[in-house]
Prior knowledge:
There is one protein chain. By secondary structure, the protein is of the alpha+beta class. The strands form two sheets. A five-stranded antiparallel beta sheet has the order 4-5-3-7-6, covered by helices on one side. It has a two-stranded antiparallel ribbon with strand order 1-2. The N terminus is likely disordered. About 20% of the residues lie in helices and about 20% in strands. The chain is built from four helices and seven strands; from the N terminus they run βββαββββααα. The termini are far apart.
Amino acid sequence: MTYTSRSNGSGAIYTGSKFVDKPPPPELGQEVTITVKKTRFKLRPAQVSQWISLFGKITTEPEYPIAPDHQTVKCDDIVLKAILRKHIPGILPAFGRRMMVSYPGQTILCGKCFEIGHIRKTCPQTESVKWSSFVRAVSKEKSVTSEMLGSWVDLLEKNN
């Protein structure tokens, strides 16, 4: 089994053994399998659902899948399916944690400037955008509550 990791900046993804062409972004209204990576079991499936429902209609219950090559050990990713209403950023400020979201064809998000379409390594910006600025932009969505942000609310109050 192979795993996808970061893009090399050329529109390809590394599968653990080679670079392959990245799939095109899914159409809005299409069902996708979404993986919330490395939750370290600190985000619960219900919390993940709360965030993902802002971007689409959830069609399967979120769950911890069985780890590859194991019979009974669950991994710390959470997997669910949803029909997209809008594309999901790769990072979300969920319940005081940085929730890493991925799905096939997802547009990449830069960890330096938080713009879509490139990665930190190829970022054209000279200065980094503060995480608090990104959290503030996301928190302006009408359905995002302080509970969903968790301790990031304190960060916003400090940076006012």
